[in-house]
């Protein structure tokens, strides 16, 4: 590994074990910080029009603002799922929403998510647990071809659940993001780690909205066993490593939404 980038790459990795090792202010009983910084006494506050009135949004409207408004209002982190299969067309839509290519210009591409310098330093994997037309196994998404490559066949749910620290639940599939930081480091050097993290947020929010549009549920997972998930994905943990995960399924069962 290039020593120039060691610190930034370490910053991107899961260090959830430190939660138990280090006492937080919450665990020490200190009050939480305010949700927002209050305006100063000498600052004026301008009230904004409510969004639904500003755009004339009605419950049955099919306009673009109304449709997006409903998706944003209904977006939740959903953790409880029914044991059901998803169609391959559904998975196709979810993956395209995360990293789909709008325009390929050879050395770079424009996708459904923004990326600093169009570097797109993420690889997307899918654990297909219950997908119609797909053998259970681990797949890697190829955005340029909009295709899947089978990395490993078989339902190894237990290994993945252990790496995700018990957060697999009854999901039909799991979307997993791996960082390939040199794609951004090549251009931005030591400033790349922030851009990699931002890309993951962009991609996962697209997944949330796509799931909401299809009546599915998902929940972003940032707490995982770094070495365990790297091993599960077959990554070296240095030039490529696990960054983010999101189980996906049909909502149902006990209410675990927020």
UniProtKB/TrEMBL annotation:
UniProt xrefs under Gene3D superfamilies: NADH Oxidase (3.40.109.10)
Record-level Gene Ontology MF annotations: oxidoreductase activity
Name of protein: Nitroreductase domain-containing protein
SUPFAM superfamilies: FMN-dependent nitroreductase-like
Domain Nitroreductase: 73-249
InterPro entries (alphabetical): Bacteriocin_Proc_Enz, Nitroreductase, Nitroreductase-like, SagB-type_dehydrogenase
Region named Disordered: 22-44
Compositional bias ranges of the Pro residues kind: 30-41
Protein source organism: bioreactor metagenome
């Amino acid at each position: 590994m290039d020593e120039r980038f060691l610190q930034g790459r370490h910053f991107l990795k899961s260090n959830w074990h430190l939660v138990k090792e280090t006492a937080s202010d919450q665990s020490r009983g200190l009050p939480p910080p305010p949700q927002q910084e209050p305006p100063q006494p000498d600052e004026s506050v301008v009230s904004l029009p409510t969004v639904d009135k500003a755009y004339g949004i009605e419950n049955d409207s099919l306009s673009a603002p109304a449709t997006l408004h409903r998706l944003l209002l209904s977006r939740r982190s959903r953790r409880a799922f029914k044991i059901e299969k998803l169609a391959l067309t559904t998975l196709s839509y979810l993956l395209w929403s995360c990293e789909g290519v709008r325009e390929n210009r050879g050395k770079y591409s424009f996708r459904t998510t923004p990326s600093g310098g169009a570097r797109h330093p993420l690889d997307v994997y899918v654990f297909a647990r219950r997908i119609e037309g797909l053998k259970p196994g681990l797949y890697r998404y190829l955005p340029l071809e909009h295709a899947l490559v089978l990395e490993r066949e078989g339902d190894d749910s237990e290994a993945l659940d252990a790496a995700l620290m018990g957060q697999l639940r009854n999901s039909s599939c799991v979307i997993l993001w791996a960082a390939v930081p040199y794609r951004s480091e090549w251009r931005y050097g030591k400033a790349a780690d922030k851009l990699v993290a931002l890309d993951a947020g962009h991609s996962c929010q697209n997944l949330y909205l796509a799931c909401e549009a299809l009546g599915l549920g998902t929940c972003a997972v940032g707490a995982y066993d770094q070495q365990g998930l790297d091993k599960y994905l077959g990554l070296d943990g240095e030039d490529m490593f696990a960054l983010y995960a999101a189980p996906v399924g049909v909502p149902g069962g006990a209410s675990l939404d927020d």
